[in-house]
Write a structure and sequence with these properties.
This protein is an alpha/beta fold and 465 residues long. The strands form 4 sheets. It has a 6-stranded mixed β-sheet, with helices on both faces. It is globular, with a radius of gyration of 21 Å. It has a domain of 218 residues: 3-Layer(aba) Sandwich (Rossmann fold), CATH 3.40.50. The protein has 20 helices and 15 strands. Helix 10 crosses helix 11. Bound molecules: pyridoxal-5'-phosphate and the ligand N[C@@H](CCOP(=O)(O)O)C(=O)O. The site of the ligand N[C@@H](CCOP(=O)(O)O)C(=O)O has 13 residues, from helix 6. Keywords: Amino-acid biosynthesis, Lyase, Pyridoxal phosphate, Threonine biosynthesis.
């Protein structure tokens, strides 16, 4: 398996080189040259597998034996040994039509742990085996940063700098990142929003001299391995539900921001998983909803909502979808992305929009609806949703019908977002791991939304002896 860029100007690479490259050197995103297809018979055989074994089966299509099987197995075992549930991502059945896939049983209580625990192991492996210098640079709206820091803290040969929007993440998210005082961790709190943070890191990854000089590596979903690791739980969820009930096709409802999680589902579908609709749930930052409904991809004004991790206006992985939507024509992708940069929008015609709508539905959830759904599920099912998960459920309720089975993703634990939960007078007990953060000192450097200031901080950090 080789990997290529959505923009077509990078020579095809192997798996490890693709991981190290992160953002493609031509500014695009790396994708597999060909997507392997899993037969229905193989899928049936996979029903009996544990999460870890399923992960190994799926990754074996993609790693080209660049990592010996026993080494990969060891990494996978270590990655998921830190999860509080032996199933890693257990399915909770709410009704025979609605299942919730709980993705928050990892160390930082959000779905990002599923991929980032593995990525931490993988980077550590590559650093030791190949003597690679791993200087991670990431942007976060709260969860990726916390999970990435947990994934690599204290690991030899790795340094990590994470940019988060100052005071625009939840208190628990901030504490999870900034109470870490390890020498290999730098937290920059940027006076701006997530799009600003992501914009700066994309610019720095795009500066090939800077990227090469500092050995910059990515942990965001711009890195294909993040996407692939997230694909595993689509298969896992389907297989768990298929064991319980007769299933032909399944829908997934996905709280969305950067489009990484949805794209993982799109990849799973292309690999042969019988997915009917991918339901995109956004909050009031609804660029994706507007695209699915109108065919216009154009960012709007940034809004702070009850689901801050989804406060994203420019959905990074949209470019990966665009590549397939445009018939795998990288020249066209480059033209569309150039247009987006210059004119601020991409517009598709009515015929093309029908193709999009055949695969996706979308619902933008307003703050009031989000809280209403949290209250409703607590009262009716005694299940406490976090505000991101609530967006997914609200979208399911909008599109669900009696003939279709849906798995809705629980992307975070409610304790991470108590600010919203408190608004509807629900008192929750924090898990001990979160409770103990409340009394710890914090370490972060507040910077202006200025590339120069951020670069100065990075130079000092990566050059430190
Ligand atoms: C809790 C939570 N839910 C949903 C999302 C959206 O996922 P994606 O960015 O992959 O669309 C995020 C952030 O990415 C998140 O942290
Ligand atoms: N919501 C994310 C934003 C970054 O997304 P990623 O999937 O590209 O890492 C976060 O929590 O940081």
């Amino acid at each position: 398996m080789k990997y290529i860029s959505t923009r077509g100007n990078v020579e095809a690479r192997g798996f490890i080189e693709t991981v190290l490259m992160g953002l493609a050197d031509d500014g695009g995103l790396m994708i597999p040259e060909e997507i392997p297809v899993v037969s229905a018979a193989t899928l049936k055989e996979w029903e009996a597998l544990s999460y870890q074994d399923l992960f190994l089966k799926i990754f074996s299509y993609y790693t080209n034996d660049e990592i010996p099987y026993e080494d990969l197995k060891d990494m996978v075992a270590k990655s998921y040994s830190s999860f509080r549930n032996p199933e890693v991502t257990p399915v909770q059945t709410i009704t025979d039509k609605l299942h919730i896939l709980e993705l928050f049983h990892g160390p930082t209580f959000a779905f990002k742990d599923v991929a980032l625990q593995f990525m931490g192991e993988l980077y550590s492996y590559i650093s030791k085996k190949q003597g690679e210098i791993i200087h991670i640079l990431g942007a976060t709206s709260g969860d990726t940063g916390a999970a990435a820091i947990q994934g690599v803290r204290g690991k030899e040969g790795i340094r990590i700098c994470v940019l988060h929007p100052h005071l625009k993440v939840s208190k628990v998210q901030e504490l999870q990142m900034t109470t870490v005082n390890d020498a290999n961790v730098l937290n920059l709190a940027v006076k701006g929003n997530f799009d600003d943070c992501q914009g700066v890191i994309k610019e720095l990854f795009g500066d090939l001299d800077f990227k090469g000089k500092h050995h910059l590596r990515a942990i965001n979903s711009i890195n294909f391995v993040r996407i692939l690791a997230q694909t595993v739980y689509y298969f896992y969820a389907y297989l768990q539900v298929a064991k319980q009930q007769k299933l032909e096709k399944i829908n997934f409802s996905i709280p969305s921001g950067n489009f990484g999680n949805v794209f993982s589902g799109y990849l799973a579908k292309k690999m042969g998983l019988p997915i009917n609709k991918l339901i995109i749930a956004t909050n009031e930052n609804n660029i994706l909803e507007r695209f699915i409904k109108t065919g216009v991809y154009k960012s709007g004004d940034f809004l702070s909502t009850h689901s801050p991790s989804m406060d994203i206006q420019i959905a990074s992985n949209f470019e990966r979808y665009l590549y397939y939507f445009l018939g795998e024509d990288s020249q066209k992708v480059s033209e569309y992305m150039k247009k987006f940069q210059q004119e601020g929008q991409i517009v598709i015609d009515a015929e093309d929009l029908k193709r999009v709508q055949a695969e996706f539905s979308a619902h933008g959830v307003k703050n009031a609806e989000c809280l209403e759904i949290i209250g409703k599920y607590k009262a009716e099912h005694d299940y406490l949703l976090d505000p991101h998960t609530a967006c997914g459920i609200a979208a399911y309720e909008t599109f669900g019908n009696d003939n279709e089975v849906c798995v809705s993703f629980a992307t975070a634990h409610p304790a991470k977002f108590d600010e919203a939960i408190r608004l509807i007078d629900i008192k929750q007990q924090f898990p001990a791991e979160i409770e103990q953060l409340l009394s710890l000192p914090q370490y972060q450097t507040i910077v202006n939304n200025s590339k120069e200031e951020i670069v100065a901080q990075l130079e000092a950090f990566y050059n430190r002896a």
